[in-house]
Amino acid sequence: MCIAYMIDTANKRAKQHMILTGIVIVSLSSTNFNIITAPIQNLVLSRNIQNTSKIEIYSYTSTYEQFILEITEQSEIDEWLELLLQSEPQSNWGYKTIPQTPGYKLVLSSSENVVDILITNQTLNNKNLFLGNTYLGYYNSAVAELIENIHPLQPEVLTITHFDEISIHNEAILTDLWNEIIWSTKEPIENYHLSTFPISAYLVFEEDLGCKIFFTTDFTQAYIVDQGVMLLSSKLQRLLLEQYTLSQLTAVESFRIFEPAYTSSNITSYVDFYIEPDENGLFYGLYRENYKTQEKIFLHNITSLESNFFIISTPYLLLLDCKGASQYDLMLVNQNIPESHRYMVKNQNIIPTSIAICPHNTNFTYIIENQDNSTLFYVDNYYQSPKPIISGDIDDSIFLSDKYIAFTQTLNNNNLLCVYDTQLGKIVKYTYLNGNAHFIDSYHNQVLFALQAIEDSSFKEGVFILHNDLTITLTDFYSTEILN
Question: According to the 3-state scheme, what is the secondary structure of the chain?
Fold first, then answer.
């Protein structure tokens, strides 16, 4: 068709122009412009950084920057320049990427000029390095890694001195704290009284590096020595205050042993329940007895004395029947129909101490342990299947209220105290524990628990209260029940 147009004598010149224009358009549309622009961007980068005699490194956000360090040794500068020249040009013709996320700013100075290079923590449209005021984009992972090598991002411990010395080791919290120190806006300390920051702390890194910090008593603000005063995020403030509270442990010779806390409400009646063998000692039974009338009624047979029962909403009892080693049946027993039952779980490895009853004695939880993990189940309807809440390394559970279920688990080598919201159907609180938690009591929408930890070969223990607003406070070391 093209040949026919070319040899057609009518409007030959116009047709040739149309055909050539089409060929050019097709050629341009199939061309990768990075092939054209990459050498130009490389040349621009090379010319901007040549003859650099000093490199300054700042933490950077769009509203704040903080000086970190300066490099003046020429051999070190050459190492940085070599890494910068390895940057991969990234062209976007349709739009320009302007970095707004936190990162670092390099200021390269020479006798001819000063040039800024931004390194973002996040990759934006395949770019993490931006040159000059035009934000010419490149990708370079090596420069960011070098910054992190000389300017550590992972503290090891936060040591706090206030009456006693305590330590916070949680990696996630310490990383969040250091990130806020690096990238948060600071105010001059001259605008404050030093007495506002009575809690002294030291954030320790490897190789004896560290950062001196002073906190307010509620951890809402922090004074960073030689930098200024910063406002902590509400999340970090809550986590630090909580960790500070949970770190106030008492040295003991040995850990106390606490009985499992199954239920948080007492039922006043003239009826008693118990397990005992029959007169011939051939089998065990669950009995109900009215100690006023002396009436005794057999309710259900029991496999062994290792079995247990729990009083729930009338007329039901929750019976945990031990069938053998790591083998249990969990069933509902109707007091009005002796020897009748409804299985909730059959022939499963239920952790006996994990059963918890809600304050109104209606709903309950239990944990089934398998070879690799365990699962926490929640029952709020006796005629529906139990609801699995979470699977993993789950240790124990207890009701904080009818709405909240507290449980402990181990995740990525971290001990956690968690709270599940039964109305929302999700976990609403994770608290890191520097030790093992043991539930002691639950009453008036509060959970009393002990925290036991081994620090520097010493046994330490404390007793705390988890409140219905999900805050945690320290309480009397010898508390074994909630009195108000």
Answer: CHHHHHHCCCCHHHHHHHHHHHHHHHHHHCCCHHHHHHHHHHHHHHHHHCCCCEEEEEEECCCCEEEEEEECCHHHHHHHHHHHCCCEECCCCCCCCCCCCCEEEEEEECCCCEEEEEEEEEEECCEEEEECCCCEEEECHHHHHHHHHHCCCCCCEEEEEECEEEEECCHHHHHHHHHHHHHCCCECHHHCCHHHCCEEEEEECHHHCEEEEEECCCCCEEEECCCEEEECCHHHHHHHHHHHHHCCCEEECCCCCCCCCCECCCCCCCEEEEEEECCCCCCEEEEEEECCCCEEEEEEEECCCCCEEEECCCCEEEEEEEEECCEEEEEEEECCCCCCEEEEEEEECECHHHCEECCCCCCEEEEEECCCCEEEEEECCCCCCCEEEEEEEEEEEEECCCCEEEEEEEECCEEEEEEEECCCCEEEEEEEECCEEEEEEEECCEEEEEEEEEECCEEEEEEEEEECCCCEEECCCCCCCCCC
